[in-house]
Amino acid sequence: MQSNRLDQLRGPGRAKRHNARTIAALTGNPGCSRRAVLDAAGVDKVKLAERIGLPGSFGQSRFALSRGNAFEAMLKADDCAPLRSLLGASSLSYADLGADSDDTLGDRHDRTVQLLADAQAALIDHPLLTLEVAGQTVYLEPDLIAYASRGRLQVVEIKSFAIVDGQADSAKVSAAAVQAAVYVLALRSLLQRLGRDPGLVSHEVVLVCPENFSLSPVAVTLDVRKQLSTLRRQLSRLASVASLIDALPDGMTFDLALAPEDLTVALGHIEPRYAPECLSSCELSVYCRSEAAGSTAALGRTVREALGGIETVGEVLALADGSRTPTPDQAEAAAVLQAALRLRNEALASAQLVVPAGQSTSAGPSSVPLSSVRPSSSPPSPPGAPQPSPGQPVSFAAPSSSPAS
Questions:
Q1: What is the pLDDT of residues 15-66, one digit of tens each?
Q2: Which of 9, 62, 68 is nearest to 40 (CA)?
Q3: Which residues of 373-390 are buried (b: 16+ CB within 10 A; e: fewer)?
Q4: Could you point out which of 78, 280, 334, 391 has its C-alpha 20 to 30 Å from the C-alpha of 172?
């Protein structure tokens, strides 16, 4: 991949630097060529979305950021004494590499390498690791690296969401696991460069969160082997994005000085793979959602995969009521849709047979034509019904042994 081609795609702006969150987001939608190309070129997707008039609205609230900063500051007070006590490492050596500006990141990375090579500290605060992403060196900063039992290394990740009665929001736990897996991958890469066994880095990471409704910390372990496998596949795919870039028109660019209409045309040359989950992880998700309106992709991956080869909701409805003849590739999906419509009509007809006294059957549910039925992203709940939580809780068991000794 020619770096000047990536520079041309990005325009005169500075390349957007990856971090653990952006790398972790690559696993959320592995089939999206649009994100792969834009991330490889270092395009600032936040500014791009704002320029075309459809900015994303996800991210942490100010309250969540303040709570997270306060929780981490409490854990790292007095040379990390509360956190060291929680990890069972009060008597072990501790090194804080501090923070620095972008122009001195290399120096802190060198100090991190030296500490790990010499095993000079059992706990390393503010370490700086590197990872190759699409030919670019990305600097990553885990919260802590700890030497666990039998000389293995563990990544320690501090999060501000609460673990209540041993349970936490599954979406937040999943995001934390993927982010921690990025650090594990970078740490294993570093050990490999030092000539050490990458297996010395444990696939179990330590997650430290507030317990219940206080700021009292609790530590649990997460197995991130599955996330590591997914990350490797995605990084390999991103490194081979050259074929996607070569297929783009000559002179194409995402220079933010261009008119929004020109940027929209440029985006249209790269195939997206929108899914509702993108709204929580991609800066261009609002634009891609508007672009996917009326398509089966907007209904989610499960629906899109079940209706393979049927691109729009209109086609789905036409195949279901028989007004459209399916192609050979659509025959199986059409049969399923027609069976579903028949079952629906039978259910509605049966419901008309039992009608409470005083109610008319002249305008029953079966009088609603199929063409008027449209999918809803959030069907209304009956009055008084409890609202669904954003994610099912994940139960945690206490770690079988202390993460660090």
A1: 887 788 888 877 777 778 898 899 888 899 999 999 999 998 766 677 878 8
A2: 9
A3: eeeeeeeeeeeeeeeeee
A4: 78
Give me the residues paired with residue 163 across strands. 211
CA 156 – CA 183 distance, rounded (Å): 10
Q: Which helix (H) or strand (E) holds 125?
A: strand 123-125
Please, what sign has the CA dihedral across residues 188, 192, 196, 198?
Answer: positive
SS3 state at 200: helix
* 49 within 8 A of 207, measured Cβ to Cβ: no
Residues paired with 201 in a beta bridge: 153
Q: What digits encode the pLDDT tens for the residues 182-241?
A: 999 999 999 999 999 999 999 999 999 999 988 899 999 999 999 999 899 888 877 668
Question: In angstroms, how far is the first alpha carbon of the chain from the final one?
Answer: 46
Contact between 78 and 153 under an 8 Å Cβ cutoff? The reply is: no
Contacts of 181 (CB under 8 A, 6+ apart): 24, 205, 224, 227, 228, 231
- How do residues 302-350 score in pLDDT, each as one tens digit? 888 888 778 899 999 999 999 999 988 888 889 999 999 999 999 998 8
Rounded Cα–Cα distance for residues 292 and 92 (Å): 55
Q: How far apart are CA 245 and CA 40, in angstroms?
A: 10
